[in-house]
Write a structure and sequence with these properties.
WH-like_DNA-bd_sf; DNA-binding; D-Maltodextrin-Binding Protein, domain 2; Arc Repressor Mutant, subunit A; alpha/beta; WH_DNA-bd_sf; 290 residues; 3 domains
């Protein structure tokens, strides 16, 4: 195989401009140079690309088939050049993000769309899980950074940066007895089972003497939808429409629930790259718009 990318480009350009002479003018070359380059390409491929028996140059059947291959080859070559330029400018080849499954999907999806446009050559891997699981992915070096809801103190092996916060509320199934109250007080909540987020070494606030626990907000929401109890959930999780039965947010002013903080964490000794810092800053902005 002796053909070159330059010959392939001249082949495609001849088709796009309609003639050897037009392609030559575009390239600033003599027409004979373009004709010779394509003739050598045909000799190396063993097929005629153009039917030269007519007044205007037209593709042969083989030329039409190979034109598709030629365009794809040039697209891949351009992709290689773009990736090399990005790496030469200090860009990253790969990045693995671990994301808490309960983070607002509207913010996450907007972030990923913008990353696709801003870093088109980045090879991105996403890992999802509970807050504890995504921290474990960083510990195991399966992920470079994690974004998750803060669950108690951070292990000494991590560094962190605050990203934003998400409102939380009290939710029940829409046919739960508490759903019919205009204002719900603590003495009302204690009558019914509370389903609490469980994390190792973290004591969650509980208001009912009857407790169930789970390490997943979505698992808790499913149990609430099954009328197994009430729960404090991130508002985006409680308002999700994916459950068999809709959830209702209660008016519980006496609980004075604070917003759930979200942080980015990474292993100590690993410096966040410019790409990661952009992701952190943009995700902060997106969470702030919710």
């Amino acid at each position: 195989m002796q053909w070159t990318l330059d010959q392939i480009r001249q082949f495609v350009l001849t088709v796009d401009t309609g003639s050897f002479s037009a392609a030559a003018r575009h390239l600033g070359k003599a027409q004979s140079a373009v004709s010779t380059a394509i003739a050598l390409l045909e000799a190396d491929l063993g097929v005629e690309l153009f039917d030269r028996s007519r007044r205007t140059v037209q593709l042969t059947d083989a030329g039409q088939v190979l034109l598709l291959e030629a365009r794809e080859l040039l697209r891949q070559a351009e992709g290689l050049n773009n990736r090399a330029r990005s790496l030469n400018a200090g860009g990253e080849a790969r990045l693995t993000l671990a994301l808490d499954e309960a983070l607002p999907y509207a913010a996450t999806s907007a972030l990923l769309r913008e990353m696709s446009s801003r870093f088109p050559d980045l090879e991105l891997t996403l890992l999802n899980g509970t807050a504890t699981e995504v921290a474990g992915y960083v510990t195991a070096e399966r992920a470079d950074v994690a974004f998750h809801f803060v669950r108690g103190e951070m292990a000494g092996s991590f560094d962190q940066r605050h990203v934003g916060s998400v409102p939380q509320g009290v939710f029940v199934a829409n046919d739960h007895p508490l759903a019919g109250l205009d204002v719900v007080r603590r003495r009302d909540l204690v009558k019914y089972r509370q389903i609490v987020m469980h994390a190792d070494d973290v004591r969650e606030a509980s208001y009912s003497p009857r407790l169930w626990r789970s390490d997943s907000y979505y698992s808790i929401a499913e149990m609430v939808a099954d009328d197994l109890g009430w729960a404090i959930l991130p508002v985006n999780v409680g308002r999700d429409d994916a459950y068999d039965k809709p959830l209702q947010q209660l008016n519980c002013p006496s609980l004075a629930l604070t917003q759930l903080p979200v942080r980015m964490l990474w292993r100590q000794g690993w410096a966040p790259t410019p790409t990661v810092l952009w992701v952190q800053a943009r995700y902060t902005e997106l969470l702030g718009t919710l």
